[in-house]
Amino acid sequence: MPDRRPPKILTRLYSAFLLLGIALGWLFPQIGRALPTFRLNLGFTVFPLTPVFDFLFIVMFLSLLQIDLKKVRDYVARPRYWLLNLGFILVSFLILPWLWFWAGKAFHLDPELLFGLVFTIIAPTILLAPVFTEFVNGDKELAFVLSAFATLISPFIIPLVSGWLLEKSYHFNQLEILLKGLALIVLPLGMKILLDAWDWNPLRRRSKSAATWTEAVRGTNILLLTLLFCSIIGDNKGWILSATRSELWFLLGMGFIQDFGLYWLGWALLSRCPLDRGKAKALTLSLSLKNITLTIGMIQSICARAVLPGAVTFIFHAAIFAYITLLGEDSLSPQAGVKRLTAKLKKIFYREAAHE
Questions:
Q1: Could you tell me the CA-to-CA distances from 293 to 25, 40, 88, 122, 165 in Å, in that order?
Q2: What pLDDT was estimated at residue 6?
Q3: What is the DSSP secondary-structure string of 69-119?
Q4: Which residue from 107, 118, 274, 279 puts its CA 20 to 30 A from 191's CA?
Q5: Does residue 4 lie within any of the structural domains?
Q6: For residues 91-112, average pLDDT
């Protein structure tokens, strides 16, 4: 079986550092809580610059440096890609939340946790989708378009869908959510456009240093995502420990299905469609990797216990991030993934046995 993983050492350390972030957040939750939050007064509203926002902004900017803007414009301008985007929105914001809602109802989940469960799946695609799409040799430009569009419409569509599914009406600060989406997409994109226009983007130059810069960007993203995971797990450790055993097992099962289940099932279906494989990979990742940090931020001030499903699901978020970065294209198939992991463990075992 050919090794399709990215060859550089920093890339291969990605998975270990992501899991390290989870471990640090669990063992030392005070680390994440110690990170400062700044408040920016815009006159018409106060915009909180939380550690999660700061890390996402920098990672988003660094990830956009490799994006081909010509392909992005092509996807935005052509009507056939609008239909692809609309189909993606229909599945992501309507069909999947409906299925998750009825799964929670069938389990007789209490209203607070049902509220949180719906919000784990109703979240838009993570803004880091291009990063992980690149690991599986997918179309990172399409992944960017899907995640950007889903994020920008989420402040308007999430209250409508949650009002349709949930018995209680919840109110959100839609302006703050919209501003966050704009800040995390428009500002990094504008900076990327300026760097390309002035030929200051080191990742787009045809030189030997481009590969070095690429690894430097990946290494920086590793550290930032480690801090991001540490912060989120540390903030929500208490809610995970407060859950009953039956609630925890149900939420763990739903978290596994949301990340790994949708990832494998999505690829199994989309790989058989008359669709370019790179685009099929982008769609697969965009359907399974949700921006749970955004929806946790939306609901934590409304119903504190409702963040529990998101906190539990975030454990699988970290696991699938590590799984994708470790195995690359092989991660798309559970059979190929098991073979790769088995081969890796055997190699480690035999190496240790040889030393003895």
A1: 15, 20, 21, 12, 21
A2: 43
A3: HHHHHHHHH-HHHHHHHHHHHHIIIIIHHHHHHHHHHHTT--HHHHHHHHH
A4: 279
A5: no
A6: 93
Is residue 325 within 8 A of residue 21, CB to CB? The reply is no
CATH code where residue 344 lies? 1.20.1530.20
| Three-state DSSP string of 288-323 | HCECHHHHHHHHCCCCHHHHHHHHHHHHHHHHHHHH
CA distance 34 to 12: 29
Residue 129, sorted as left (phi over 0), alpha (psi -120 to 50) or beta, turns out to be alpha
Which of 57-61, 100-104, 178-182, 331-335 shows the lowest per-residue confidence on average (mean pLDDT)?
178-182
Q: Tokens 């749970």 belong to which residue?
A: 292
Judge whether 1 lies within some domain: no
CB 272 within 8 Å of CB 284? no
CA distance 45 to 179: 10
Q: How many residues does the chain have?
A: 356
The first and second tokens of residue 144, run together, are 């960017």
Position 297 in a domain: yes
The rounded Cα 113 to chain-centroid distance in angstroms is 21
CA distance 308 to 318: 16
Tally of structural domains, the chain: 1
Q: What is the mean pLDDT of residues 265-290?
A: 92
Within 10 A of 243 (CB to CB), how many other CB atoms are there?
A: 19
Domain residues for the domain of 226 are 9-355
